[in-house]
């Protein structure tokens, strides 16, 4: 396979349909959509996987096949698949345990139309809001090639299953690599450092970047800063460590809070975008409470803040409005800062603990079980 799943998809079609394979691919918008959505298959665990929209397609086509509609031609009379059963099935699939309803309800269709605007008005997933019943648009499953009408429903499932297998293999390799580095860390810490540094690059999966950022910051604040002394009365002060907590899963709709620090009450948001609207929206979500941003960028913190300000000024014009938002940015932590923190932690002999945390959080995030 090449760097994308496209070659696998085309080989699969060629093996099954021979001379008709190219025609089938060219006429199938869903097969082409699969190519867009499976680009990370052969890039390892560090590449972003894409499951929500694929699983929306998967479960509704699976329902179609389970009822034999690819053979009995009675789909037009079907009362539709129940939403609750489709959602439950999504969550049974690998990496799908925490998936929500968004892909089934709208996001898959919305993204599909971005790739294929000429198909606007003919959604792949159809639903009845009143009955909460769902159908796949059979026009996308039946392809006319020459004199034949070919139903590709089973092919779509087979290809998505192959993508799942590829991503599972990549993740298992990633976890095993972490565990191997744990075992040899005392003998060769340079390999462990190089591996973690490779996870702090701009092209790394956003979820892995958030996990690694959290692992580094957790131990940096706890073991480098050691502790703070605080209290409400001068004679009753408390000595306490700084504790960083991960508030939920990555990419969650959690109001812009990825990490929370006790006892200072600092909020952290991890992001890979430089769109000022995203920063200002996060600030508004927490009612202008100060936020620290962990940004997946090699640019300096000063340059990043200057770019946010420059872009915002073009939209808001009024300087005070922009400055009020910028004052809510408590700190910007970029990739070079994270790498510096990692080196400080290495000097404290804490790389094994960081790897432990990366493994733990990765297993939780990707629903990985031994």
Overall residue-averaged pLDDT value:
87
Q: Give the strand tally.
A: 12
Ends distance: 26 Å
Structural class: alpha+beta
Note the run of SSEs as H and E: HHHHHEHHEEEEHHHEEEEEHEHHEHH
Largest sheet, described in full? 5 strands, mixed
Strand order of the largest sheet: 8-9-10-11-12
Round the Cα radius of gyration to an integer and report it: 24 Å
**Strand coverage percent:** 5-15%
Number of helices: 15
Percent helix, as a range, is 40-55%
Structurally, the number of domains stands at 2
Task: Give descriptors for this structure.
three-stranded antiparallel sheet; 370 residues; five-stranded mixed sheet; alpha+beta; 15 helices
Describe this structure in words.
The chain is of the alpha+beta class and 370 residues long. It has 2 domains: 6-166, no CATH class; 185-365, no CATH class. It is built from 15 helices and 12 strands. It has helices at residues 6-17, 21-27, 29-37, 52-66, 69-72, 83-92, 102-115, 153-184, 189-198, 206-224, 276-285, 301-316, 319-326, 335-347, 351-365; strands at residues 81-82, 125-128, 133-136, 142-145, 148-151, 227-233, 236-241, 243-246, 259-262, 266-271, 291-295, 329-333. Strands 8-9-10-11-12 form a 5-stranded mixed sheet, with helices on both faces. A 3-stranded antiparallel sheet has the order 1-3-2. It has a two-stranded antiparallel sheet with strand order 4-5. α4 crosses α7 (102-115) and α8 (153-184) packs antiparallel against α9 (189-198).
Give the topology, please.
Blueprint: H1 6-17, H2 21-27, H3 29-37, H4 52-66, H5 69-72, E1 81-82, H6 83-92, H7 102-115, E2 125-128, E3 133-136, E4 142-145, E5 148-151, H8 153-184, H9 189-198, H10 206-224, E6 227-233, E7 236-241, E8 243-246, E9 259-262, E10 266-271, H11 276-285, E11 291-295, H12 301-316, H13 319-326, E12 329-333, H14 335-347, H15 351-365
Helix pairs in contact: 1-2, 4-6, 4-7, 4-8, 8-9, 8-15, 10-14, 10-15, 12-13
């Amino acid at each position: 396979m090449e760097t994308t799943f496209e070659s696998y998809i085309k080989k699969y079609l060629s093996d099954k349909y021979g001379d008709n394979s190219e025609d089938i691919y060219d006429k199938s918008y869903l097969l082409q959509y699969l190519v867009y959505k499976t680009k990370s298959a052969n890039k390892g665990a560090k590449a972003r996987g894409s499951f929500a929209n694929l699983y929306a397609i998967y479960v509704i086509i699976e329902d179609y096949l389970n009822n034999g509609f690819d053979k009995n031609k009675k789909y037009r009379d079907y009362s539709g698949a129940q939403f609750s059963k489709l959602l439950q099935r999504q969550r049974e699939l690998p990496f799908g345990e925490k998936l929500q309803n968004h892909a089934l309800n709208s996001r898959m269709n919305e993204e599909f139309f971005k790739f294929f605007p000429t198909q606007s008005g003919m959604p792949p997933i159809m639903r009845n809001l009143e009955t909460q019943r769902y159908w796949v648009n059979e026009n996308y499953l039946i392809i006319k090639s020459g004199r034949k009408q070919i139903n590709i429903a089973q092919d779509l499932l087979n290809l998505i299953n192959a993508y799942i297998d590829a991503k599972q293999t990549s993740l298992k390799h990633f976890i095993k690599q972490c565990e191997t580095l744990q075992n040899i860390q005392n003998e060769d810490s340079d390999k462990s450092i190089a591996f973690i540094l490779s996870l702090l690059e701009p092209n790394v999966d956003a979820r892995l970047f958030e996990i690694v950022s959290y692992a580094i910051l957790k131990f940096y604040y706890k073991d480098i800063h050691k502790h703070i002394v605080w209290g409400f009365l001068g004679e009753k002060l408390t000595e306490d460590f700084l504790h960083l907590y991960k508030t939920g899963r990555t990419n969650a709709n959690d109001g812009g809070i990825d990490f929370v620090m006790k006892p200072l009450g600092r909020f952290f948001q991890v992001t890979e975008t430089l769109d000022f609207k995203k920063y200002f929206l996060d600030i508004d979500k927490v009612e202008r409470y100060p936020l620290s941003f962990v940004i997946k960028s090699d640019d300096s913190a000063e340059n990043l803040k200057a770019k946010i300000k420059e872009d915002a000024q073009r939209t808001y014009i009024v300087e005070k409005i922009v400055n009020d938002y910028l004052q809510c940015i408590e700190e910007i932590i970029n990739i070079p800062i994270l790498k510096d923190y990692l080196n400080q932690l290495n000097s404290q002999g804490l790389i094994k603990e960081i790897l432990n945390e990366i493994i733990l959080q990765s297993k939780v995030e990707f629903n990985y079980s031994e």
